[in-house]
Each structure stands twice: as C-alpha cells, then as structure tokens.
Amino acid sequence: MISAVLFWFLAVVATAAGIAVFRVDSMARATYALAVSFVAVGVMLLLFNLEYIGVITILMMVMEMAIMGIFMIMFMGMNPALMPMSMVHNKRGSAILAGGVFVGLATAVLLVPWPERRGTPVADLTESLGETIMGSKMLVMLTVSPVLFATLVAAIVLANPRGRYDRFGDDLRRRPPAGPGEGDRR
Amino acid sequence: MVEGLVEVAPGWVVVAAVLLGLMALVGACVDGALTAHSDRRPLLAGAGKPIWETARLLRQRRRVLVASDPLLWRVGGAGLLVVALLMVVVVPLGRWTVADLSVGVAWFNAMDVMVWALVWLTGWGANSAHGLVGGHRFLAQALSYELPLMFALTAPAVAAGSLRVSDVVVAQQGLWFAVWMPVAFLVFCASVLAFSVWGPFSPAAGGDIAGGVLTELSSVDRFLVLAGRYALLAAGAAFAVPMFLGGGSGPFGPEWVWTFLKTVVLLAAFVYVRRLLPVVRPDRLVEAAWVIVLPVVLLQVLLVSLISLGGGL
C-alpha cells in the first residue's frame, strides 16, 4: 500500500518536473527540473529493489545536469541563457511528435499481453538484470568500454589548448613548463 | 545484515539529525576557539562565538536582490544540511543504524554528488557575478576530487567484498582499513574537505571573489549554508569511522562512545587543516588530481584487490 502511494507520488513528480522543463523560462530552472525528474525515477528504481541501479541513476544524473547546466548557459548564443527565454523550438512539430510517441507507447503498455510472474525473484536483482540484458555479450561490452573511454581521453588530449606541447614546448624539453592555468601561459 | 547490528525505526532519524547538528556545532566551536587562539583572545569566548553568530543571523533581515532566483537559491542553501543528514543515515552509531542499505557506500557517493548541484545553485540563484564565479569554481574543483573520491571509497568496499557499510565495519575487525590503505584514507579525507568547500578547497567561497557563493547570503539563508558546511564536514568524518577507522571498535566501553570519539577527533582535524594549508586554485588542482592523485589511488585499489584475492591480511 505505502509503496504504491509512493510510486504514484514519484510518478507524478517525475512527470510534472518533466513538463516543467519546457514551461520554465530559465536555463538553470529547466536543467534542474530535469534533474528532479531523474531523481524521482532513481527513487522509483529503489522501490523495485534495484538499489544499485537506482542510486547510480541519481548520482550520474545529478552530476550530468550540474555540468550540462554550465554548458547550456555557456553555449547559448548572445547569452539569452542569463535572461528569461522560451525552452521550446518548433512548437507545432515537437508537440505532434511528442504526442504521437506518448500515445503510441501508452497504447502499447495497455495492449501488450504482459506475462504473469513465473517463479520467485532472485536475491540479486541487479546482477540478474545485467545478465538478462548483456548475457553472452558481457565480454564484448567489457572490452568496448575501455576502448570508448580511451577514445574520449584521446579526443580531449587532442582538443586541449593547454596540453603538454603548449606547456613543455614542441620537443617537450622546456623546463620549467608553463603552468597549467590560463594566467601562467608564456 | 550483520549479527549484532540493529536497524532502528525510521523515526530515529530525528535523533540522527540532532546528533548531526551537535557535531556541526562542535566543528564550528572548534573553529571559533582556534580563531580566538590565533588572535590571542580568550578561548572560551571564541568557542561560543558560533552561537552568538547564529542568533545574530536568525534576527537579521533578509537581503532582497534584483532579478535573483529565490527558489533555486534557497534550495541550494538549505539542501546542504539535508544532504549531510542523508549521508549520516547510513552511518552506524555503535550497534544502531537508521538504514543499513545494501549499497550504503554508493549512497554516500550519490549524496556527495548532490553537493555539486547545491553549491552551484547557491552561487547562481543570487544573480551576482561573484556568486556565479564561485559556483563555477566549485564545479571545476568537483571534476578534480570526485573520481579520486570514488576510487578511495572503492578500496574499502573491495576489501570487504560489499557495498554495505556494516559489512565494511565487520571486515575491519583485525586491522583498520586506514592502516593498510592509507592513500585511500587520505584521499577520502581531502575529498571531504573539498565537498564541504573547506580549507585548501574553498576557492568557491574565496576572499578574492568577495566570498563567492557566500557573498549575497544573509540572515537564515547564510546560517543554513554555513551550518551546512560544518554538517558536511561532520558527516564526512562520521562516514570515515565505519569505512576506515574500524567503526565502533575500541579497547573498552560501549561502541557508540568510540564512534563519537573518532568522529570528533577527525572533525577537529578537518577544521584545523584550514589553518595549515593555503587555498588551491581549481585550475591548478586539476593537474595534481588527474596526473598524480588519481593514478596513486588506482594503484591503491589494485593493491587492495590483489591482497583481497590472496585471502586478505
């Protein structure tokens, strides 16, 4: 009973915060409304006894929104991000798209013949969920993730305007190197 | 759930809140006494200063700012205390704990990430350039300390083979983790200072930007943020006790006394560090954190993993 009430409360919070993302007139409010929506979803996952996934969802999403907020404000041209602004572009098109997707998904939820539960849930739901999703591809995923990570790091190293060639000189022999900060550049 | 550890009713979270407030007050009083000591004023008057300062702030009229965002500003300021409380609910006090989550360590980590958002919102909401610079500084600093902190928390979890805080305590019955994984312990302590915007990691509230995120705060808002900082320090110190300092284990007496004693000693050390070290600029910290600290703490985790695979110490 209590968990059902909590679930509906969180569902309403998540949806309302999601709507707020497009209704508010400030970048910061839109960003953190999205964060609230994600946190509500994370707490819902806790209700499903997916503790690890729930907590990590909260962690990742708050972190991501904190950084995203800065980027949104930084890259909004002519800086309207610091002034009240509308959060919607192409109003009619996006409304049709969003409405269509919602109706489609909601119909699917109601029409799909959901199977009855067979057997009992396992002790470690997180592990079993991972096995179900990844299964035999676990090894591939484990290999791909370091490769992806290395690609990210390499891209940042190449794009960094204050990398080691700027600081240590073209032959990497300048001693002492120019400092890491903007103010320390030679 | 471990033998002997009791998960108390959720209502006891009120007691946890009171204890956290008390610890935050202890931290503030220690800082007041240390300030009085360096100014050659009477220690006792210095230690009492936080109480008078609280009374002053609570009576002060709120400053009203043009085009501020009061909602985000207040959420940011008041949130620090809430997050500190959410951190301590997973900390066992002797043999009692409010919530012995199966992922208690990850929970603490998620809560400290909340501070990213809260400090930035405090800086943003005031619509002040100094506050905004402070908020951005904090996020820049957070990029430096968060990964080392995560791996510092990984080390005890790997050694205990569990993310449950009570399992980590049980795993330390032979030897405290602080003794055989000192790097992880030190990095954790430094990260606590960092997410509390304290000492060497307080450029977000730096004097060079007129107080940064604290600049425009007045009245009860200022009180909540200042108290929240001490509460975060206290929560970090309290969490270090089950993670690295053997929890409630002690040579004699009840276990809760030892939890308290260790927390207070560590908290006092945290508060004192502010007087020893200069403030580090975030753009300088990032190099030290990623080039030196992160590899070192990763080596620590590797060492701990190998020892755990070999059957432990």
TrEMBL record, chain A:
Transmembrane segments: 6-24, 31-48, 54-75, 95-114, 134-159
Keywords, comma-separated and alphabetical: Cell membrane, Membrane, NAD, Quinone, Transmembrane, Transmembrane helix, Ubiquinone
Reactions listed under catalytic activity: a quinone + NADH + 5 H(+)(in) = a quinol + NAD(+) + 4 H(+)(out)
Transmembrane helix as UniProt keyword: yes
Molecular function terms, GO-annotated: NADH dehydrogenase (ubiquinone) activity; quinone binding
Membrane topology per record: Multi-pass membrane protein
Enzyme class, spelled out: translocase
InterPro entries tied to this protein: NADH_UbQ/plastoQ_OxRdtase_su6, Nuo/plastoQ_OxRdtase_6_NuoJ
GO cellular component, one term: plasma membrane
Presence of the UniProt keyword Protease in the record: no
EC number from the UniProt entry: 7.1.1.-
Subcellular location: Cell membrane
Record family assignment: Belongs to the complex I subunit 6 family.
Function: NDH-1 shuttles electrons from NADH, via FMN and iron-sulfur (Fe-S) centers, to quinones in the respiratory chain. Couples the redox reaction to proton translocation (for every two electrons transferred, four hydrogen ions are translocated across the cytoplasmic membrane), and thus conserves the redox energy in a proton gradient.
Name assigned to this protein: NADH-quinone oxidoreductase subunit J
Taxonomic source organism: Arthrobacter subterraneus
From TrEMBL, chain B:
Cellular compartments annotated: Cell membrane; Membrane
Transmembrane spans: 12-34, 71-93, 113-133, 145-163, 175-198, 223-244, 256-273, 285-309
Keyword hit for ATP-binding: no
Nuclease as UniProt keyword: no
Keywords: Membrane, NAD, Transmembrane, Transmembrane helix
A Pfam family annotated for this UniProt entry: NADHdh
Main location group: membrane
Protein name (Swiss-Prot/TrEMBL): NADH dehydrogenase subunit H
Protein species of origin: Arthrobacter subterraneus
